[in-house]
Design goal:
single chain, about 325 residues, mainly alpha, 9 helices, elongated
């Protein structure tokens, strides 16, 4: 036993066993000043001085097996006083022995250890007839209380989200109506109205905080932007179709002019007739090939232009172009 000359109130009594199988440090099952080395619920014993049963929660301790905090467990079951008195007994003996500075025989230490052990066993036996607190049920009750308190907040948020989504649906329907009231022969005005609608949807998101509502507004904005892009593609395809028609007409006109020129330059009969014929065949063949290529391009453009789908007046543009 080590003598401690410091403040007697903070001294500790260490019991050393003769059994070679146990470590020479503070043995499990002993009581230090203010600390409980054996769990009063499951009987777990502290294995070292830094065991969670002695050190966790700033010295209150916690059983690593059943999770019980010994001090609180004993207080709840009315055993605090007896435990504290027993836990201070070794400290008082240690203080007295420190003052007298006399060695204590090992048989005395063993006797003290077994007395404390028997006292703890009797305490645990008496506590075994009582129902231990169900920490899991308490935790579940706390969680249910938190969930219950958060339900009104979630309900209010859901109502706010529903209101915002209804406003968004009303807004998109009105903007689509404006788009389709534009003159059918003025595609530029229709495209401008769709682009304006996309900007209006984007501006409406500035005061929003709900992520679900913001995502819906972003889908609608993308819908109007995609709508404008499709209208521009259709416009470009129709413009190209018109230019193809102009090119075909120009080729036919050129064919007639070149044929007339051949007739004027290769007049006469006899040897001039085959030359004039071959020249006209060449001009006609070149015109046919060029015209046929242009008409193939025109047919493909018509197919693409007609395959483009645009949302109507009552469409859900938020999900119309959804991938």
């Amino acid at each position: 036993m080590n003598n401690n000359d410091e403040n007697p109130s903070t001294s500790k009594l260490t019991l050393t066993l003769l059994d070679e199988g146990l470590p020479t440090q503070q043995q499990p099952g002993t009581l230090t000043s203010g600390l409980i080395a054996i769990c009063p619920k499951c009987g777990y014993r502290a294995k070292s001085s830094d065991d969670p049963l002695l050190t966790k929660f700033h010295g209150l301790g916690e059983c690593p097996i059943c999770g019980v905090i010994p001090q609180k467990y004993l207080e709840k079951h009315g055993k605090t006083g007896s435990t504290n008195s027993r836990s201070h007994a070794p400290a008082e003996k240690n203080s007295t022995s420190a003052k007298s500075n006399q060695p204590v025989p090992k048989i005395v230490m063993l006797s003290g250890f077994f007395v404390a052990l028997v006292a703890l066993m009797l305490l645990l036996k008496s506590l075994g007839t009582k129902t231990p607190p169900d920490t899991k049920i308490a935790a579940d009750s706390t969680a249910q209380a938190i969930v219950a308190s958060s339900k009104p907040q979630h309900a209010a948020t859901d109502r706010s989200s529903d209101k915002s989504l209804l406003e968004l649906d009303k807004l998109t329907k009105g903007l689509l109506e404006k788009v389709w009231t534009q003159p059918t022969n003025n595609i530029e005005s229709r495209i401008a109205m769709v682009e304006k609608a996309a900007v209006e949807i984007a501006n409406a998101t500035y005061n929003l905080t709900d992520k679900k509502v913001i995502a819906a507004y972003n889908r609608c904005q993308y819908g109007f932007e995609k709508f404008a892009s499709e209208l521009r593609n259709q416009k470009e395809m129709h413009e190209r179709i018109k230019s193809i028609d102009d090119e075909v007409n120009a080729l036919k006109k050129r064919e007639i002019e070149q044929s007339n020129k051949v007739d004027s330059e290769l007049q006469g009969s006899g040897s001039m007739e085959p030359l004039r014929y071959n020249a006209k065949v060449t001009i006609s063949g070149e015109t046919f090939i060029a015209t046929d290529n242009l008409l193939d391009e025109k047919r493909e453009l018509w197919r693409k232009a007609n395959s483009v789908r645009n949302p109507g007046r009552d469409s859900d543009i938020c999900n119309f172009y959804k991938d």
